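Researcher: Can you fold this with C2E in place?
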Amino acid sequence: MNFHALFEKMLKELNSMKKIDFSLVKEELESICDMFRISKIATKTYQNAKLEELGKADVIISYDSGEEGTVALSSRIVTDMLNIITCEVHIRNGAEPWSSEEAETVSFFLDTVTVYVSRNRIQEAAKRFAFFDDDGYHNFRYFVRYLQRADIEGKLTGRAALHFNLRHFALVNKQIGRSLGSMVMHSFFSALEEMISEKGAICRIGGDNFAIICDRECLNDVLGYLSGAAVVYDVHSGDRIMVSASVGVFLIPDDFVMEDVGDILDKIIAASTAAKVNGKQNIVFFSNEMLAEKDKVMRIQHLFPKAIEKEEYHVFYQPKVNINTGEIVGAEALCRWFRDGKIVPPLEFIPILEQGLEICKLDFYMLDHVCRDIRRWLDEGRKVVRVSVNLSRKHMVDIDLLEHLLEIVDRNNVPHEYVEIELTETTTDVEFRDLKRVVNGLRQAGICTSVDDFGMGYSSLNLIKEIPWDVMKVDKNFLPEDENSEGSIKDVMFHYVVGMARAMGLECIAEGVETQAQVRALRNNKCDLAQGFLYDKPLPVDEFEKRLDIGRYEVED
Ligand code: C2E
Ligand code: MG
Ligand code: MG
């Protein structure tokens, strides 16, 4: 075959390739090189000029007959993407030099080859941009493309889709530093990628969130790894760190129809969110109720701004009672949402508003409305009691919180002694510091504070010792069932908690008192204050005003 025939054959083959691979045209390449007495061809590509300087190249094609030779032709081109491609052709030592016609042909051949090489590069670069993120992880677009292709090929059903979020990865970064943290994340990812290999796909959605689709046979291994794996971050010392994830799994049923990629994503994200919130269960399988829950969350967040503008949130007051005299000594303000003629209880919307910062707005709104009521009662010459308002822990990061609270109270011209702020226990040191600052500030301003739901969170004695509370509200879960439950663990705890509060000069009130038997148990333990359904449920303002006018409840002996 002459050069032209060989060359044409070679180009035809290269053109038919999805990805240019010169090893597949080895025969033609060898014949051409032999024809022109070429001992070596080296084509190198550099990602950029800097790497060219450093000599860091990818070798795309190379032909080497093993014979000694000298450079007879070289070229260097810079592509649109600023890749640099160089090519060198060596002629065998001692071989007859090229004629001018031969030199032209080789030069033409070389240019053509370089163009093919650069095309290959461009394809690869385009692919890299399209399907990888800046950190080298397969990206979300890649995952979507995989799902769509699997769907078309009928290979989606029967498989497992997963979404996972690395647990406490911020702590990992803090412990070993960001760059080692990134390396750990990469290793964790690569291990999963290897585990799944041809049987699925994995991508990083962003941050420490990832998605997987894989055959069910891989699922056990993948879930085992995600539950916790030790990843080496220092190859010399072999130091390792535990990495685990909150995982949502959707087992794609056989009759599943994917209209949109969201049909799968929504499910795995809802399940992994449930796993994250749950705390105990790191792996959660999707169920339909989860989507309903997600809709509910979105609806409540969406309705919030309008609802607050239209004052759909109402203050209900639950009296606090001195169990010995029956006197109303205070009240707790509790939020109720009037929506479409129904009353929505706080547990259905407060935890959702606490996911964002909406709760802060609501708490300020509640305080404002409570202050308006107190001001009115004072102006009407009514008996007025101190009212406590709940404040979410979400406020703790707000450094202007104190000013904001005082601004509301003072704007309504309410004496500070009528306001109490209820705060719940805290879990972290940082929150603890903020809590201490807020409580101290309120005390200086003459506003009482109470620690709400005492005993339910991660109670620490430090919380009581270090923070100048006025009131301890013992959670209903710690109430003795009746006066005969003496000796039960609950009873012992209640006894000592009340004793401790008294000894420290704190007011102590029992929440959730429902029966006379409980009142007797409170009396035995010298806890004088109670709040609960036995006296009243949280009441609308007009009902509460009637109670205030009477001023006391009947007391049983
Ligand atoms: P909490 O602050 O501990 O309020 C006491 C809860 O116990 C109230 O529930 C009250 O209705 C209920 N309760 C009172 N007496 C009894 C009883 O005898 N038996 C039983 N089983 N329960 C009783 P509610 O009103 O449903 O509020 C639930 C929680 O929602 C509150 O717990 C509080 O944490 C939160 N919350 C309510 N309003 C607000 C608010 O305006 N802001 C914030 N941040 N949280 C609020
Ligand atoms: Mg409360
Ligand atoms: Mg409480």
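Model: Folded with C2E in place. Residues 452-453, 473, 511 surround magnesium ion (ligand 3) (CB under 6 Å).
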